[in-house]
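Let's practice the habit of predicting before peeking. Look at the sequence and jot down your guess about where helices and strands might fall. Then scroll down.
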Amino acid sequence: MKPSTFKSGTWAAVILAATGLFALFSVLARGLPAVPGVLRGDWDVVLTTLGLVSVGLTLSLLIGGGLALLTWLARLPTAADLLISVAYLIPPFIGATAWLAALGPGNVFTGRAILPVYSPFGIELAWVTHYAPLAYLLVRAALSAQGEGPLLAARVHGLNSVQGLRRVVLPLIWPGVGAAAALIGLSLLGNFGVPAVLGFPAKIYTLSTLAYARLLNPTLADPLSAASGVAWLLVVAALPALLIRPRTPAGDPAADFGLPTPRRLRRLAWAAVSLWTLIALALPLAATLLLAFKPAYRPGFTLENFAGALALDSVRRGLWHSVWLALGAAAICALLGLWIARAGQGSRLAGAAQRLLTLPYLLPGTLLALGLILAFGRTALYATPLFLMLAYLLRFLAPGVEGGRSAATPGAANLEFAARLHRVRRWPTFWRVTLPLARPHLVASFLVIYPLALSEVTLSALLYAPGAETAGVGVLNLLSEGNLRGAAALATVLLLLSLPTLLVPRGRA
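Done guessing? Here is the structure:
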């Protein structure tokens, strides 16, 4: 690729990084004077947020890490990974809706509340069933990176299995556990959908939902400043996790010595996987599907709930907007990520911009949304679907850049160099060499970003306007109106729209 391509990719990275930074700094500058007032009046929300996040993080790590350790010791096949991790592919606010359908008032089984889901318990339930699989994937990856060598060495030196795990294996995977804790903590802190679904009716606020409530409060003299003041507290709470630098644990994943696995351990591991799948996936999904297809006052099944939800103009517009925004954002982020990642190989400036582009992805989405309102609120772009597209691009570009880095292999660079030696022009080289080699990584990036953008709700709830709704906002609006069956039907449609990408094997992508 010619230097001009590197230069243009560098400028693209710098411009996008500068846009994101400008939005973040705008909200922090606007909210600084309001921080003392927030601390005086909303300290209880700060404590509630920290308490909920701490409990959710601890439970997610214990359950996900425990399942990872158990399946690794029992050497279960990849089918176990799929059964545990598939719950993570369901958006959190849809998971919250599913738990309402399973346990909440008007649930499909008894018609009365089985457990108090409009409560901290319900928020933790929805959080843990979504983020424990993420902890599982990250801890299992750290264990797999070590191979069986450390455990075998511990046994050779006279330690039993429990002592080998406690003294040898666990200390080696602490970097991976720390990285998992940082990522899950940031995700919990910025999560808006679950507290909005299960917290608003019980007047339980977290910092993310408090910023939303402040922004829409007509009694405040300056709602935007009040919301930005809450955003400051989000940044302060996120700093410890942002300062953790993940380290890849050293090890030899190929060191598989075929250690004997007791049958009792394998049975125990499969029982744990089956129990998790039943509780975290089968029960809420079955309740959602039953509620979506069940009529209100008579037995049998019907499509009335789908027809009623889709009869609303706002729901139809929201679905249309969500689909084309998700397809467009996923495709653009994948291609733009490849372009920027390749520029980062030849430019320190582009490399620095790439690191800055991770901030909108890691920091709570509330910060980005408020910053974009401040930066573009007086332009014609504001309150349009294109405004949401800009927000999605800034939010989800980081996974696209990561996929681009995976595609930028030495072998690909050598083939492009060979094309240049044979006097093939820049764009023919890109279309005939670069894109075919990068296609699997582009597909993988698309498959990661599309479901996230399709069911995105944090940015949408703050940035949408009448006529520019999304499907996630539609679910929240139906729930706020008490239309649980309509919300379950719309959530089912979103899951069906995501299903094709969820069924594509990631390894082949």
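How did you do? The CA atoms of residues 326 and 465 lie 18 Å apart.
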